[in-house]
Sequence to fold (262 residues):
Amino acid sequence: MWGVHYAALASGSKGNCHALSDGERTLLVDAGISLRQIHRRLEAVGWQGGSIQALALTHEHSDHIAALGVILRRTDWTILATPETRQAAERAKGIEIPAVRWLPLEAGRPVTWEGWRVLPFALPHDAADPVAFRVEVGPLACAIVTDLGHPTALVADHLQDLDLLVLEANHDVDMLREGAYPPHLKARILSRVGHLSNASMAALLGRVYSPRLKRLVLAHLSEANNDPGLARFAAEEVLRGTSVALHVAQQHIPLLLPLASV
Ligand SMILES: [Zn+2]
Ligand SMILES: [Zn+2]
Fold:
């Protein structure tokens, strides 16, 4: 059997999409690239995780829901979202998520999906009701955490005892400050409800590292305001002396990681 796998299909300001499978079924987290690209990239990494059955939405920004309209028309996937994110996504896309396709979420309350435990939790980000996900598949615990302005205690609480952590490392503060972005955009990204810097990522990682952690994937890197080497370096400082495997998710090249062979 293929076992539990994770794939970063796309990560960055031009689109985000993550896939998780137990070898029989696949859950996507966000769909910020086209449905065609989702299928192409799964094929490119040799995905054998069974058919996609559901899509969990973190929030309604376009780099997370771009394919939602097509997905509603062309697939029968269940959509996991909080009521506020459902409504904001419907408004942003001019679409309707039918009640029969919708599995309602509430931050802080775990739901059971196909035997998995899916726990959405609140993030500080400038969207209607942004969440991140902790997903437990059998004995494995994973979390996908991007689009947060700063690392809160609540976020840290949800990242204890993980096997896999996918964590935002959006920007290097100096690169952003000195870069070409207009002042209002710099202010938005740097704000308490913007995006996580390399330094804040490292601080959060230091709070949640446990010997159980096997893989760290740095995600949602800004192409303009970060350098993968800088993000890696910030994480390596925290992980020195540990056996954690460090990866960087990319915008255009998918990444496949085995979590366990069953
Ligand atoms: Zn985003
Ligand atoms: Zn966002």
Summary: The chain has a mean pLDDT of 97.
